[in-house]
Design goal:
Strand order of the largest sheet: 3-4-5
Structural class: alpha/beta
Mean pLDDT: 80
CATH topology: Rossmann fold
Helix content: 40-55%
Number of helices: 8
Number of domains: 1
Number of strands: 5
Low-confidence stretches: 1-21, 28-32
Distance between the termini: 21 Å
């Protein structure tokens, strides 16, 4: 079990990671509005809320999340309590920081892949992964922002295939 990582509720021997934000680092930001208030502010404006991320986190907005996908995501998040989980993720950052510190006391030794956008975080996520793992392969995806699969599939897919084979 020492060399396994939990991915989506399952244990896996390798951890391909497209985006890792370690709570408690200088990149973590605390949202000051309560989760109910944040949901109230976004309700009915989910598409506007996500447009910021889809556009501003892309190196090139024309290669960001496609319009058809944007409609699907906005519709899904507009349902019932669709935004709650995302806001709860940020609400948990303080506890996550404590957990991260405890978990990082013993470094992971399984192969660990980090792909990160050149115009997003550069080497930051690779450096961060090396804080918790000894066998890190890191690639900065040239010309990409946060949306690696949309912006640079020709670089991302071969890197993942090479890592898994």
């Amino acid at each position: 079990m020492d060399s396994l990582v939990r991915i989506g509720g399952r244990l896996a021997p390798q951890a391909p990671v497209a985006c890792l934000a370690a709570p408690g680092t200088d990149r973590g930001r605390r949202l000051t509005l309560g989760p109910g208030r944040r949901r109230q502010l976004v309700k009915g404006r989910e598409r506007v809320y996500f447009e910021h991320f889809w556009n501003d986190f892309a190196a090139d907005q024309t290669k960001s999340v496609p319009e058809a996908d944007r409609r699907i995501y906005a519709t899904a998040y507009a349902r019932g309590d669709g935004m709650r989980a995302g806001f709860e993720y940020f609400k948990a950052f303080e506890q996550d920081a404590k957990d991260f510190a405890a978990f990082s006391a013993r470094k992971l030794d399984m192969p660990f892949l980090v792909l990160t956008g050149e115009k997003a975080s550069g080497t930051f996520l690779i450096d961060q992964a090396r804080m918790v793992a000894t066998n890190v392969s890191g690639t900065v995806v040239k010309g990409s922002g946060h949306w690696l699969m949309e912006e640079a599939p020709d670089q991302v897919l071969p890197a993942i295939v090479a890592f898994l084979t």
